[in-house]
Amino acid sequence: MRILTGLCLLLSVVLFTSTFSMAATVDYYAILEKCDQARGNLAGVTWTVSVLAKERGETNNRSILVRSRGFDVVAETLKPAQRKGHKLILVTGNMWFYKPDLSKPVPVSKRQKLLGLAANGDIASTNYAKDYNVLSTEEGTLQGRPCYIFDLEAKTRHATYQRIKYWVDVSRSVGLRAEFYSSSGEKLLKSAEMEYLNEINAADGVSPFISRMVIKDELMSDNMTTLTFSDPVVEDIPSHIFNLNLLRK
What we know:
Elements: H1 2-24, H2 28-37, E1 45-55, E2 58-69, E3 72-79, E4 87-91, E5 94-98, E6 106-107, H3 116-124, H4 128-131, E7 132-142, E8 145-154, E9 163-169, E10 175-181, E11 188-195, E12 198-202, E13 205-209, E14 212-217, E15 224-234
Antiparallel strand pairs: 1-2, 1-15, 2-3, 3-4, 4-5, 5-6, 7-8, 8-9, 9-10, 10-11, 11-14, 12-13, 14-15
């Protein structure tokens, strides 16, 4: 009888522990998807970005109109006047550059994605949920807020950054900081810190939307770019704007 009672108690403990573990299981990929939505991964959204770039002692300003459908993106320069009409087009992870005097868009190489405006666009449009595997997670804090800290590895060798460390606000499911590493995972190349003071009317109600991103070049400490996001609007984005053959029309 004692043996039977002991077995019953043991079984109860195992079942309780199993049930508790299942209840406490966190869907980390769902969290990453929510983070991506707060940076533009929606069925259709437009916004304006003011870019303040400091590189090698020089300061440059741009105003850019961004139209996004998922992580397919067209970013068109509005100001300054001499760069008006310049575009970066990102479709299924591939990037092209276009300006009005080109006969056709020019592919942007993986190496070029590490530099200048292409680098900023590449980081701002990182698709964490789709393009990266979760190697591990831990809990921590950033800016006084409880966070999940993700260690992410690219699913393919074609990704610009093979490893990313990503801090996600537990309560709001938005990314607060990302560190972008070399393929070895040892050398920190760039970092980004994000704020979410904008809001959008998404399918599941009012949601936070990115308002500011500060991107730092960790190899050249004087190089820093601040992206200020304004006027986000959820709307239908036509397919033809992502068609590379129609850019001149």
